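Schema walk-through. Below, the input block comes first and the output block second. Nothing else is stored per chain. Lengths vary across the set, and this one has 209 residues.
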Amino acid sequence: MPTVADTLTDIERLQTEIECRLRQGTIRQDAFVADLLNFTIILYFSWLSHHCLAKAQASISLGRSPAVAKYYELFAQRPVLEEFIRWQNIAGLFVLWNIFEKFVRNTHGTLSTSVPSAIEDAYKAILKSRSIKAKEYDQMITEFNLARLTRNSLHQGGIYSGKRVRRYVFRGVEYEFREGVKVRPIRLLDLASTFWEHYCRIVASNSAT
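--- output ---
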């Protein structure tokens, strides 16, 4: 499992890549890019305090501050930490999905004035319009649906309610969706990086046409 330090490093790496491509002019500043950078900055800020306090624990006098002592007491309780991560993941997933869904709907709106019955149909239409190759197309749809179904499960407390059993492999991890079973959470940085990759492929494909 990635550590807090790992997550901070991954956030910095993603931000650097985005900023580099903006400087190079291979992508332009738009709503998706601005929202994704803002999301990663807030996520970084959220985790930074825990990283700093963990590093400083040996040098802090706990007796001087009951609040600091209480922080370390709670941080040491694994169930509390896991619940904190769970709630942060739920909130982050909703925000990330909203960012990407807005990009999908806005992009689809440039292709057609008709409103698709499902967001998946809109995404498929975008990829087909960009002539994404079959293998890449299948991977992108798989990753898109994994995020979509995981996000939708949160409306049922994280439980999958569909009748059809679905299985996906995402970044080497297998995810199974079975009716009545709790859905495995997705690491936010993995999903943010994946949405960024999808965005770049779509934008690059559009520029090449």
